[in-house]
Amino acid sequence: MTVMEQRGAYRPTPPPAWQPRTDPAPLLPDALPHRVLGTEAAAKTDPELLRRLYSHLVRGRRYNAQATALTKQGRLAVYPSSTGQEACEVAAALVLEERDWLFPSYRDTLAAVARGVDPVEALTLLRGDWHTGYDPYAHRVAPLSTPLATQLPHAVGLAHAARLKGDDVVALAMVGDGGTSEGDFHEALNFAAVWQAPVVFLVQNNGFAISVPLAKQTAAPTLAHKAVGYGMPGRLVDGNDAAAVHEVLAEAVRRAREGGGPTLVEAVTYRIDAHTNADDATRYRGEDEVAAWRDHDPILLLERELTERELLDEDAIQAAREDAETMAADLRARMNQDPVLDPMELFAHVYAQPTTQLLEQRAQLQAELDAEAAGPEGAGR
Amino acid sequence: MTVMEQRGAYRPTPPPAWQPRTDPAPLLPDALPHRVLGTEAAAKTDPELLRRLYSHLVRGRRYNAQATALTKQGRLAVYPSSTGQEACEVAAALVLEERDWLFPSYRDTLAAVARGVDPVEALTLLRGDWHTGYDPYAHRVAPLSTPLATQLPHAVGLAHAARLKGDDVVALAMVGDGGTSEGDFHEALNFAAVWQAPVVFLVQNNGFAISVPLAKQTAAPTLAHKAVGYGMPGRLVDGNDAAAVHEVLAEAVRRAREGGGPTLVEAVTYRIDAHTNADDATRYRGEDEVAAWRDHDPILLLERELTERELLDEDAIQAAREDAETMAADLRARMNQDPVLDPMELFAHVYAQPTTQLLEQRAQLQAELDAEAAGPEGAGR
Amino acid sequence: MTTVALKPATMAQAITRALRDALAADPSVHVLGEDVGALGGVFRITDGLAAEFGEDRCTDTPLAEAGILGTAVGMAMYGLRPVVEMQFDAFAYPAFEQVVSHVSRMRNRTRGAMPLPITIRVPYGGGIGGVEHHSDSSEAYYMATPGLHVVTPATVADAYGLLRAAIASDDPVVFLEPKRLYWSKDAWNPEEPEAVAPLGRAVVRRPGRSATLITYGPSVPVCLEAAEAARAEGWDLEVVDLRSLVPFDDETVTASVRRTGRAVVVHESTGFGGPGGEIAARVTERCFHYLEAPVLRVAGFDIPYPPPMLERHHLPGVDRILDAVGRLQWEAEN
Amino acid sequence: MTTVALKPATMAQAITRALRDALAADPSVHVLGEDVGALGGVFRITDGLAAEFGEDRCTDTPLAEAGILGTAVGMAMYGLRPVVEMQFDAFAYPAFEQVVSHVSRMRNRTRGAMPLPITIRVPYGGGIGGVEHHSDSSEAYYMATPGLHVVTPATVADAYGLLRAAIASDDPVVFLEPKRLYWSKDAWNPEEPEAVAPLGRAVVRRPGRSATLITYGPSVPVCLEAAEAARAEGWDLEVVDLRSLVPFDDETVTASVRRTGRAVVVHESTGFGGPGGEIAARVTERCFHYLEAPVLRVAGFDIPYPPPMLERHHLPGVDRILDAVGRLQWEAEN
Ligand SMILES: Cc1ncc(C[n+]2csc(CCOP(=O)(O)OP(=O)(O)O)c2C)c(N)n1
Ligand SMILES: Cc1ncc(C[n+]2csc(CCOP(=O)(O)OP(=O)(O)O)c2C)c(N)n1
Ligand SMILES: [Mg+2]
Ligand SMILES: [Mg+2]
What we know:
Chain A is α/β, with parallel strands linked by helices and 381 residues long. Chain A contains 15 helices and seven strands.
């Protein structure tokens, strides 16, 4: 008889009523980023979708280039380019239904545009014009969020509210690898999982938070592994494979819509340009690293697939490029017009009704402007 | 020839330079909370340690009872009892070396006391006396932290600083299941893992955050699973098995000390008393649930083990109880004396040197007190 | 209008009633926070609401204040009217970024397209023997943040009326509940409670001719007491209860001080950088030539809130207020 | 003392130099924040420090402000002197709970046993064409928090001197760096820079007899410009640069206003609930009978910071300051 067997009375039992809440295994991401292009799965993807993704990628690349050019011409205050990340931007926009909501971060102008926001209106903030240039309700695109990760709880709350109202709405929220370190990321994912809110979190892991490489940001096996700590599935996808990103997001959106709760998707990608036009990327990374990623370009990957499968010919490529040029020319032309802002609007939206104090201040500014308009004489000095 | 084989040029490759940073498997906790008492492993545990744990548990239980009694007598403003959780409190204190640091939450007075803090000084805050009654440097115990989870980054910073200075110091930080939902929990664990700081995070999962049960707090398989998202090992332990808690913490402390970085430990336990004396636990849980946990009592589990293995006889039990009574009597006696506070101290520690403004305010209060002392006549009214 | 006998009620009861009536009147109203469900909140303000309206309307959240307010922002974006409970003043700080960077600015950011009708209930202030972090007066932080309304009741009727108005407001409102008045009682008619709208109107709680005490929230009863005591000194003090710190009712305050020619601002919050500076400055700007003495301030000291055993020395009391009144240069009178 | 030729330097250079000298002088000084390493920070203030002192002394942290400040608290507990960089004013808000609940209170909480000598560098204010969240003036929040020093330089020499003093201070200091003065130049002798100690002393930047402009940080050069322009109107304006909002130098300010009899407080921060209220109130308390007119305030409007294309309308400029001076009831003079 062993020691153990002698102990009828108190065999070790787990603490009362204790049990794991979920089986962790299905929550863990695949070992390697999911790929579609260049695999057999690609053949199963709707050719129409691939073609749509393609033309959006081409447009998106051109949009990034044009916006960057506009910063040099002083037409944009700042532009955080998503060159190299177009597959994520475009897939995030195309995967949603009209009734769904997109919550972009400050880098995701392109996702907003791909969802239908007017390209000029999407740039209003970055132009130095009003903070948000579009009506968020028009295309169900929340304002571009500058304070990192703070938009994630908004997405959760909106999705939760829609569910409470019985509406069949999914929210997709975008954040960077750096943003995953913020407390708001944690709180948002936790609320989403506890409430089983219909949200999809898309982390664009582009390798850097400004100058800080991922290795200084996290020691996690992958960012997708964070999902298991919230009890939601984590998916890892090649963020430069537009078909794969679309597939993984579509599955997550479907799951959310069907009441299956949130998903965390990590898309592994790379920021080809500097952080913004104001940044000097040579301070923290080498050109060889960038070059390796240029070979893994999202447009290149998709173009190869489409060409090999004869879903795209020279004419179609040409057409996509021309369409992008038209968009760029239009953007350029419209951005070269000076926006007209009314200083009085400063007081218009602080509250539903301006307070007495704001009305006084409004009057003060009006008087100043009137004096200014009357010229140096009128100004009294 | 398959479609795949035709494609020499672009076999799907993972994105450039991409690789998981850590192997996730070793980070994941065991499926069931680790147990020692009642298992073969118990035989391998140092009997002296078990006896020490035992006498501390008995003392700790008595301390909780006495402190709770003091609230009824108006001698304590509030007391968050750790009855039922003594194994965690005691093991956390005993596992550390003198040079190490303990970062307790507001519920962990007992851990502070077990580490050597004077029982009355440990209660100063809860008595309504000064905010912290002990010198944190005397026993290397940080002030009891009321804002939940905010002490965790402090522990990380301290451990990191010690390591930078070449000191062989480990920090152990305590937090509740509810506290894991705060952004500070996330940020602290992430910093610790990225910096490989010598910290151990002990989550006492006592089933509730005031009235909110764990199921409304998280959907994670276990709280220990959160570790994987930071790239640190997660350990799950039966929090009422003092030997198991000590073993798991000791291993984590050793790992931290040897440069292996942080560990997240979830101890599954139960809060037998209400949240504090001011709480009414009947509003959110049934007596049957509490009863089940009473059968899984940490003292009971350890007492059984020790008795069966004849490491503890009636005399020793009696001695432990008497020791606890002495402590309680002393505590009672000292807590029944009114503390003497000097109102002038209000101005003494705001800055290293009081500002002119504080000196003025100090003079004002002094004048008021002088007038008060001089009686209604002297008060000028 | 039928005449119903007024019955004594506590401020806590009036707040509960306001929440209940708001939930009943408008299906878009949702209450959320830590322990607001089965427990009814640590102050029992939400007692019974989850039972009556279901957990979807009165929801226990995970323990994370930024998450609570952040999700409330999203709920408001979708047309709901969240009423968020912060458990204590100091535990609202984790949500500060959401308050300042989003709650207060979303309407402005979106040119009015996306208003956020959120009510943030914050039990605040001291005098209840609370240990550290349980007695903060955090109103200065919110006052300095354009886009928020900041409201605080001092009476049972106002607690009901202002909270209904706050919840009905299309702007975010920080609703500061003076903890130590939770159990204060007033005669009140719960059968015909009324919203106090529009927000932003101060009220003269006690008319007087000698000087004006300008105050709000927990200090209102103290000022009324001081005004009674002042009669013995021959001073007839007017007491103005601001009720709303933002918007600020310059009209009522200015009219009072112009009438009396002297004023003391009274609040618990620390003096330096606290609300009293703003109030004294704007009163002086508007009433300079009516003033016989500088506007004085009686406030908490410029220290972290003291431990319970010392808090009585910190809190502005009747004597300290009367001392300040005494320093209003009465010799100038003659 | 050798005479060394003064050379023009920018405020940014002086701050970098102060950090470098502090790191060199005291091994317990550690710089940490987002992008402070290889990049040298988004404003390049920490340029070269990681290379010179190693990544352990100048550390790129994960992207989480509460985590940065929270770990700095722990580092300070262990005897280090962390100098934390917040990337922009509005991105310090996530750390607000750590600031208010710990940084400002730890010394007091522990009866002086556990001081926290932490310097929190915050680039603040507008005028640089920054998009939303990049131009906040958040000083009112810190001023209302006892236990913090709040310091802000307006000149190149002060940027060096005050920062050295802040890092040397045994108390936590919020060091507000006026972004738009980063590239302002002064003649400065980097070979003999001096700390400005003790913290808490204002300085008269320009003596004058007609009225006092009380200001700090980014508004100091604007006030000096206004004072020059005022000469044409016959006003000889004194300009007081506070340099330290906490502690507040009542002595210097009071002496100036008693001399001139008139004062205008000028700052970028919103007026309502902003620093100007406190300043105007305390000046009035101390100088009432010397004042010919109420202390006026010229501040940012009570609105969220405007988009770049409108910011010039928001920022206090020379004209607005002179208008206020003009309203100081000069008729009373005669
Ligand atoms: C709360 C907050 N802190 C700091 C910043 C400043 N900031 C802007 S972008 C950025 C890096 C973001 O990195 P990541 O999340 O990876 O997104 P990416 O830029 O790569 O798209 C930082 C630190 C900010 N916007 N918000
Ligand atoms: C930041 C913060 N929010 C809210 C509170 C109020 N509060 C005190 S204890 C508590 C519940 C804590 O639950 P848990 O973390 O599980 O610890 P336990 O009480 O079970 O030990 C709450 C909400 C607080 N102290 N700090
Ligand atoms: Mg990134
Ligand atoms: Mg708990």
